[in-house]
Write a structure and sequence with these properties.
By secondary structure, the chain is of the alpha+beta class. Strands 1-2 form a two-stranded antiparallel ribbon. The longest helix is centred in the first third of the chain and has 12 residues. It is globular. It binds zinc ion. The site of zinc ion has 5 residues, from loops. The site of zinc ion (ZN) has 5 residues, from loops.
């Protein structure tokens, strides 16, 4: 076994291919969903939202 899970690799490359910064969140699961060139904090729009109508979820400094 290579030790690298193919599904994770596909998921990572998929996020970047979709135009996301996709930096791994340091304190838990999730990835930055902002544009790669954006300045400011990384934001995960898909995890940690307070409700389905919340604009963004987890946020962490770059
Ligand atoms: Zn980011």
């Amino acid at each position: 076994m290579s030790g690298k899970r193919p599904d994770e690799a596909v998921r990572l490359s998929g996020g970047r291919a979709a135009g996301h910064c996709w930096v791994q969140r340091p304190s838990g699961p999730g990835h930055c969903a902002m544009h790669p060139g954006r300045s400011g904090d990384h934001v995960d729009h898909y995890n940690g939202r307070a409700s389905v109508t919340a604009i963004s979820g987890h946020r962490w400094p770059r």
